[in-house]
Write the structure tokens for this entry.
Amino acid sequence: PAPNESWAPDVRRLDLSDHRGPRGVVYLDLHPRPGKLETNALFTVRGGCLVDRASAAHSSFYAPRSVARAWGFAAEPTRQLATVALVCSLRPPLTRADFETLLHEFGHALHAVLSETTSQHLSGTR
């Protein structure tokens, strides 16, 4: 992450993309630290969705190349990129259960960044 972009120094940022371009951002906060809750969860910072190009004045929007007509947009839509935080408190060595939890929560992250809906409130899992 850029300076002052995350809430702790050990948080990592993943910028996910596919053949069409950027899809979203996943922040990984995987290690315990003093004051951090002992939880495993995915938190949505901003839901991803397809929006009308006229309403997309923010720099974190992306224009996909192929979905316009299927979603009923008169012009090619713009994509609001999803931003999520995967928060766990994993201690080495990882157990099989820890690894399954990590994969489970990362599945929620993929669901959030790969959703193609016109309503950000329907993207990902809530």
Remarks:
- The chain has a mean pLDDT of 81.
- The chain has one helix and seven strands.
- The first strand starts at residue 12 and ends at 18.
- The helical segments are 96-114.
